[in-house]
């Protein structure tokens, strides 16, 4: 096992596409690091450079103590698991798992021991003599994992290994991968575009956008202290609502004007973010997570934390309601929010929109209905603030 270090790693493809730019990542021995970001952000390219499948055009890659920029893939002692399992259809599960060891001409008895140990870890013992076509998708994925495990590599590199599985199996295999990685303690780099997968699996999560690392942090820190609008909007589901507001200082207190309505900024929140005061009298980008809002009709007073609107749409998910309503504050339009909209499959943002669609997660006890007035209580302790031009979080 080993630490993996990327220092200023870059990739420019022969056609001039700059897919990865100055990537710095220190992955500790035994750590599970997830690389996440929208399609085309360069995460697969980064992983393939670590694997030795793609030439590194800038920076230094170290695995363990060795600089491996020019080391061929087979000599890097890393094992890659792909989204297409790349199993040999004519070989049994046993031979598929042991294939790499046979190539390396390990003694038969050792191959048998290692393959059977891996099969036991993966719950494949009963299936060792089957062919891949007689396995379920989840079992095939396990065989692919088994092939990586028996090699006892310094690191696992996984590229969207669960994306061919149905939703239920994906959740099951996600837990499995987490358990196996913990049991084996092998340094792992895992690529996905799925933020839920990233958050549940990673000891730390690295968020990329257009080839550039945006933030690397433990999942909860990404959620609570996103470095910028892109990370804030990418992590969380439904996504954080991002609105243009105006910060006003009144005596010692700050208040936030949002499309003609006002929220009081709690003193504790302002104290935690010393730079917030610099924005007094100016426009500011405000983030409100859906889960930080509730139907005010369910309780609480009118204490500078309530926004009034009309319910447009209610999506009942059983355990919660997703309530859509409009606020007169315009949406935030930056390069980050454009990229997020693209990733969500939306057309480009309407830069002239005078108001925003806001989504709140209400308790199922709420009886709000489309067309009826709604009062929305905002957990103002959990407001997020960003520079409206650079998109950087304000702390
Ligand atoms: P996805 O999730 O869609 O696979 P990704 O984040 O893994 O996306 P990459 O596959 O690493 O992204 O691609 C990053 C960028 O590099 C994209 O703009 C892509 O079009 C480009 N790219 C990838 N491979 C090549 C290549 N062989 N030649 C030129 N450009 C490439």
UniProtKB/TrEMBL annotation:
UniProt keyword annotations, A-Z: ATP-binding, Cell membrane, Membrane, Nucleotide-binding, Translocase, Transport
InterPro entries the UniProt entry points to: AAA+_ATPase, ABC_transporter-like_ATP-bd, ABC_transporter-like_CS, ABC_transpr_MalK-like, ABC_transpr_MalK/UgpC-like, Mo/tungstate-bd_C_term_dom, NA-bd_OB-fold, OB_MalK-like
Gene Ontology molecular-function annotations: ABC-type transporter activity; ATP binding; ATP hydrolysis activity
SMART domains assigned to the protein according to its UniProt record, in alphabetical order: AAA (SM00382)
Pfam families documented for this protein: ABC_tran, OB_MalK
GO annotation terms (biological process): carbohydrate transport
NCBIfam families (UniProt xref): PRK11650.1 (NF008653)
SUPFAM superfamilies, A to Z: MOP-like, P-loop containing nucleoside triphosphate hydrolases
Name of the gene: ugpC
Protein name (Swiss-Prot/TrEMBL): Sn-glycerol-3-phosphate ABC transporter ATP-binding protein UgpC
Domain ABC transporter intervals: 4-235
Cellular component GO terms, alphabetical: ATP-binding cassette (ABC) transporter complex, substrate-binding subunit-containing
């Amino acid at each position: 096992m080993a630490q993996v270090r990327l220092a200023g790693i870059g990739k420019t493809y022969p056609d001039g596409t700059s897919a990865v730019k100055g990537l710095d990542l220190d992955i500790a021995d035994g750590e599970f690091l997830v690389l996440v970001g929208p399609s085309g952000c360069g995460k697969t390219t980064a992983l393939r450079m670590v694997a030795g499948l793609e030439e590194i055009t800038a920076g230094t890659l170290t695995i363990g103590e060795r600089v491996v920029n020019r080391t061929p893939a087979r000599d890097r002692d890393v094992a890659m698991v792909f989204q297409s399992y790349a199993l040999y259809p004519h070989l049994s599960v046993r031979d598929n798992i042991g294939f790499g060891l046979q190539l390396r001409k390990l003694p038969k008895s050792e191959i048998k021991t290692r393959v059977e140990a891996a099969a036991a870890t993966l719950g494949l013992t009963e299936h060792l003599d089957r062919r891949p076509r007689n396995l379920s998708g989840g079992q095939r994925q396990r065989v692919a994992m088994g092939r990586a495990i028996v090699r006892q590599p310094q690191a696992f590199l996984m590229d969207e290994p669960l994306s061919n599985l149905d939703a239920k199996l994906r959740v099951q295999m996600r837990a499995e991968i987490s358990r196996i990685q913990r049991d084996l303690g092998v340094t792992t780099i895992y690529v996905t575009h799925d933020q839920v997968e990233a958050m549940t699996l990673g000891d730390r999560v690295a968020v990329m956008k257009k080839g550039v690392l945006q933030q690397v942090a433990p999942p909860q820190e990404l959620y609570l202290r996103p470095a910028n609008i892109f990370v804030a909007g990418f992590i969380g589901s439904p996504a954080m609502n991002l609105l243009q507001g105006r910060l006003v200082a009144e005596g010692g207190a700050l208040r936030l004007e949002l499309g003609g309505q006002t929220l009081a900024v709690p003193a504790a929140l302002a104290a935690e973010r010393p730079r917030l005061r610099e924005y007094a009298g100016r426009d500011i980008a405000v983030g409100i997570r859906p889960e930080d809002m509730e139907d005010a009709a369910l309780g609480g007073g009118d204490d500078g934390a309530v926004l009034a609107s009309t319910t447009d749409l209610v999506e009942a998910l059983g355990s919660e309601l997703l309530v859509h309503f409009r606020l007169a504050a315009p949406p935030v339009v930056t390069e980050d929010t454009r990229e997020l909209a693209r990733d969500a499959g939306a057309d480009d943002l309407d830069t002239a929109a005078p108001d925003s669609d806001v989504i709140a997660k209400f308790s199922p006890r709420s009886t709000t209905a489309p067309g009826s007035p709604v009062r929305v209580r905002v957990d103002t302790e959990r407001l997020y603030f960003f520079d409206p031009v650079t998109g950087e979080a304000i702390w």
